[in-house]
Specification:
By secondary structure, the chain is of the alpha+beta class. The chain folds into two domains: about 100 residues, no CATH class; about 200 residues, Muramoyl-pentapeptide Carboxypeptidase, domain 2 (2-Layer Sandwich). The chain has a four-stranded antiparallel β-sheet with strand order 6-7-9-8. Strands 1-2-3 form a three-stranded antiparallel β-sheet, with helices on one face. The longest helix has 15 residues. It is globular. The structure holds zinc ion.
């Protein structure tokens, strides 16, 4: 089956030399070569996004008729890995029984700032409820199985050989070796923007720290943070100039109204900085409903998902 899919894609790529995306967009019955073996199923779009976003892993996907699911396989750091697609949760076989507990790995990340004034009463109530300590503890989260395989973050001992010390905008930091290159690219883009943007100049001048790797759980939960993998970085300034930077700190001061903190009332990195990160596959925590304005996280699959046509429409 896998061979069939590969053969088909190979033939298709000769006819449609553009990317897989272009191919899928332009796919229609009449375009299909008559002699091509027809794949029994098309790889789900989100799975294709994941495979493309981590292309250096050479992820292979095969539909397993018996299990009625896509099985994905790849090798990393000398170890073979097998996961079930599980409608996008990417789970090892033994976790299929708990699939309801997990979010999808590839989900819609929106890079639009919502003005709290536009929140409905229901949204406000939901955010308030979500922000309570009790609910944070039991909230579901991004399934980490795939990421643990990518970054070797099963344990601190297995991960730390892949954590390296570097500098970002002059500040010492420790990151996973896999994000070193995209992070260097972000830095180059920010330094370029500094030449023309006074805001970026101030941002760099006022940068106090660039903390990335830290083996810890997400604030108020039992889940591992992406800082624990060394793929999230917090950029903190020396001064917030009166702005709030993190929803949870705002909640501690004002448990009922933190979600109504206006956009102007929050400290923000300049747009050029956010764009530099996004262009290299990092999402910004400031776009989350529970905003974390200092936080950037390497998720090329979410940036790729955001750019798909379906998401733009
Ligand atoms: Zn953070």
């Amino acid at each position: 089956m896998l061979k069939t899919v590969i053969l088909f894609l190979l033939q298709a790529s000769l006819i449609f030399p553009a990317s897989g995306w272009e191919f899928r967009k332009s796919k229609s019955k009449s375009d299909e070569p008559k002699q091509a073996p027809k794949p029994e199923r098309t790889i789900p779009e989100d799975l294709q996004i994941l495979m493309d976003s981590y292309s250096n892993l050479k992820i292979q996907a095969e539909f397993d008729k018996e299990k009625n699911d896509w099985i994905i396989k790849f090798e990393n750091y000398g170890h073979p890995h097998t996961f079930h697609w599980a409608e996008g949760s990417v789970l090892p076989e033994e976790e299929l029984i708990n699939r309801e507990e997990y979010w999808h790995v590839v989900y819609k990340y929106s890079n639009e700032l919502r003005d709290p004034k536009t929140f409905t009463d229901e949204e406000i109530a939901r955010l308030k409820e979500y922000g309570t300590v009790k609910n944070r503890r039991k909230a579901p989260g991004t399934p980490m199985f795939f990421f643990d395989a990518v970054y070797s973050s099963y344990s601190r001992a297995k991960l730390e050989p892949h954590i390296i010390t570097t500098k970002f905008l002059g500040k010492g930091t420790r990151v996973h070796e896999r994000i070193l290159e995209p992070l260097k690219n972000v830095e180059a883009k920010i330094l370029k923007a500094e030449k023309t943007s006074p805001e970026v100049k101030v941002f760099i001048k006022e940068l106090k720290s660039a903390a990335a790797y830290n083996w810890r759980q997400i604030d108020g939960t039992k889940r591992k943070s992406f800082h624990s993998l060394g793929i999230a970085i917090d950029l903190l300034p020396v001064a917030y100039h009166g702005g709030e930077v993190f929803w949870s700190w705002a909640r501690d001061k004002n448990p009922d109204k933190w979600m109504m903190t206006s956009i102007k009332g929050r400290w923000m990195p300049p747009k050029e900085v956010i764009d530099a990160f996004e262009s290299e596959g990092f999402i910004w925590g400031g776009y989350w409903a529970i905003w974390d304005n200092m936080h950037f996280e390497y998720h090329p699959e979410l940036i790729a998902k955001m750019k798909t046509k379906e998401n733009i429409d």
